[in-house]
Design goal:
By secondary structure, the chain is an alpha+beta fold. Helices cover 24% and strands 16% of the residues. The protein has an eight-stranded antiparallel β-sheet with strand order 3-4-6-5-7-2-1-8. A hairpin with a 3-residue loop joins β3 and β4. The longest helix has 16 residues. It is globular and about 40 Å long.
Length: 262
């Protein structure tokens, strides 16, 4: 019988001993996802693809409807009255229905003036809505505390940006850079939540702040303006939610002119 060389015996011993030393709870680590997988399917599924086609989102809103905002400061509900500003109310309805505001930051809060949001967390979405301008609604309601109004850069320039009046801003009713036509109002004690939005950045932001957000999205804000609050979700509730609604995809102090878009 041939003898097994001593070197082979030593190797077998080391192999067996190593195998016996592993315990059942030492599961193999999962491989880290590649860069392609992080930026590929997951990124594409982060928002409703219907948002890439603004011209197709033209549903007429109910006469009144409610929207629930879940934010990093708590929840509040808004009631929209279409008769106040029909064009704006329809736009807001379609944006909420397709989850435009989900994950978006409340990027501008000026104490005693306005809390502003309405730039998408996702640059591809912001890009296609940047020129989706609306015709103006006449100002039928005053910009009182708690009302929601589209921001403008002048007549005929409303798109997706919205502000909540933190006080009675009646001067906006006649501001020439408008028209600023309220279309809804925060319900009940909801302003207690709105008033907690982080406001210490104020207007101490770059002149092209909104352009940067449009191009770079929420990662830019998270990195450079980390204390800003954000909207976890904005969804139709009540009677408005009874109709088929798109489900969200899985997620991987100046005066009146300062309320306008640049």
């Amino acid at each position: 019988m041939k003898r097994v060389p001593a070197l082979i015996l030593v190797g077998l011993f080391v192999f067996v001993a190593g195998a016996l030393a592993q315990t059942p709870d030492q599961a193999p680590a999962k491989p880290k996802p590649s860069a392609a997988s992080k930026t590929g399917t997951a990124a594409r599924a982060a928002y409703d693809r219907a948002l890439l086609h603004p011209a197709l989102l033209k549903d007429k809103a109910p006469d009144t409807y409610q929207v629930k905002f879940e934010t990093t400061r708590g929840d509040f509900t808004v009631t929209v009255t279409r008769a106040w500003a029909p064009i704006g109310a329809d736009r807001f309805y379609n944006l909420v229905k397709h989850h435009f505001f989900d994950s978006a930051s409340v990027f501008r809060v000026v104490p005693g003036f306005v809390a502003q949001f309405g730039l998408s967390a996702y640059p591809p979405v912001s890009e296609v809505w940047a020129k989706a301008n609306l015709k103006d609604d006449p100002v039928a309601q005053s910009n009182l505390r708690g009302t929601l109004t589209f921001a403008t850069g002048g007549p005929g320039t409303r798109t997706t940006q919205i502000f909540i009046n933190l006080k009675d801003n009646v001067g906006l009713d006649r501001e020439p850079s408008g028209p600023f036509a309220p279309f809804g109002k925060v319900d009940g004690d909801g302003m207690k939540v709105v008033n907690m939005f982080y406001d210490q950045y104020g207007d101490n932001t770059p002149p092209n702040f909104q352009d940067i957000i449009t191009k770079q999205g929420k990662p830019y804000l998270d990195k450079n303006w980390p204390k800003l609050d954000s909207i976890k979700s904005a969804t139709l509730v009540g009677a408005a939610a009874a109709a088929p609604v798109a489900k969200p995809a899985p997620k991987p102090k100046p005066a009146a002119p300062a309320a306008t878009k640049p």
